[in-house]
Amino acid sequence: VQLQASGGGLVQPGGSLRLSCTPSGRTFRRYGKGWFRRAPGKEREFVAAISWSDSRTDYTDSVKGRFTISGDNAKNIVTLQMNDLKPEDTAVYYCAELKTPAIRHGAQWYGYWGQGTQVTVSS
């Protein structure tokens, strides 16, 4: 099973994109899902996550107020609405399954990584 991220593209600063994360292959449900990103020359970093048990969400500070994670538990699909995009948001975005009941920011707490989707913010 892998999680496929889609919806990336090229957008001007201040623009919006909506990313989707859908499972491929046999589906199952763990505790939630998270979004990560990797910018050129940088480490992979946590962006946002949602917990299925209580629909709690969490975000890294740099995207709070601009990004919104939401999900359909029944369909096991998660989206990331990204508004007011900035050049520093440019990265490959990945989604993954949360392996613990509590939302955590470390990538080691997530699994079933799939191919990411490129987001480029540039004028």
Description:
Helices cover 0% and strands 49% of the residues. It is mainly β. The strands form two sheets. Strands 2, 4, 5, 6, 9, 10 and 11 form a seven-stranded mixed sheet that branches. A hairpin with a 6-residue loop joins strand 4 and strand 5. The model has no long low-confidence stretch (mean pLDDT 92).
Write a concise keyword list for the protein shown above.
123 residues; mainly beta; 4-stranded antiparallel sheet; globular
Number of strands: 11
Strand content: over 45%
- Cα radius of gyration in angstroms: 13 Å
Structural class: mainly beta
pLDDT < 50 stretches: none
Mean pLDDT score, rounded? 92
Total helical elements: 0
Order of helices and strands: EEEEEEEEEEE
Specify the biggest β-sheet: 7 strands, mixed
**How much helicity do the residues have?**
under 10%
Shape: globular
CA(first)-CA(last) distance: 37 Å
Set down the secondary structure blueprint:
Elements: E1 2-6, E2 9-11, E3 17-24, E4 32-38, E5 45-51, E6 57-59, E7 67-72, E8 77-82, E9 91-98, E10 110-111, E11 117-121
Summarize the structure.
This protein has strands at 2-6, 9-11, 17-24, 32-38, 45-51, 57-59, 67-72, 77-82, 91-98, 110-111, 117-121.
